[in-house]
Design a protein that fits this description.
mainly beta, Jelly Rolls, 4-stranded antiparallel beta sheet, 8 strands, 37% strand
């Protein structure tokens, strides 16, 4: 669970964003609840496109419809992590049925991840090694990369998430990646 001070910090970040954008969501300092959003992809080549513009909120694949968050649900992004899975033959697994428990290969660790919102620009731009944790621990909290500055993902504004790799991964395997974004959304009334 998050520390109370992170939730209070998220409230301030969201309030400032809502005031700046002139958006009303349950008052100036709404109650926030914890939320995780996921995006997944099968890796084919050096470029990874995570968000399916024709996709839908589908368990295990993507936790929001198409390429936009739900209306009236801005998301304060506080932490992020990446997980990797692979198999030797195609067809047995898919992004929503893969066990994401393998250490990421070097080309994936050395890649870049970028999260962009069309009307706001780049919100996250990190080396993949920063969001992968290849160390197994008893406490999975350390698997998340805590963002230095919380970012608000605006509701109903186009999101693009991409990865770029320096080299193609082993072609004898099928590769999958899952990005989990952890943060807060306004409580539904």
């Amino acid at each position: 669970m998050f520390k109370t001070d992170r939730r209070e910090e998220a409230k301030t970040v969201l309030a400032q964003f809502l005031n700046k954008e002139n958006i009303t969501v349950s008052g100036a300092r709404p109650d926030l609840v914890e939320k995780e959003h996921i995006i997944t992809a099968q890796i084919t080549g050096k470029t990874i496109d995570f968000i399916d513009v024709n996709g839908k909120d589908e368990v295990g694949k993507q936790s929001f419809p198409a390429d936009k968050l739900e209306a009236n649900k801005p998301f304060v992004l506080a932490e992020i992590k990446a997980e990797y899975g692979a198999q030797l033959t195609a067809g047995a697994l898919a992004v929503d049925t893969t066990d994401y428990n393998l250490p990421a290969p070097a080309a994936l660790n050395n890649g870049n991840f970028k999260l962009v919102q069309d009307d706001r620009g780049t919100l996250v731009d990190v080396l993949m090694a920063a969001i992968f944790n290849n160390n197994e621990t008893n406490n999975n909290k350390d698997k998340y990369h805590v963002l230095e500055k919380m970012e608000v993902l605006k509701a109903q504004s186009t999101l693009t998430a991409t990865g770029r790799l320096p080299a193609v991964l082993d072609v004898s395997k099928v590769h999958f990646i899952k990005i989990t974004m952890k943060g807060y959304v306004p409580r539904s009334k």
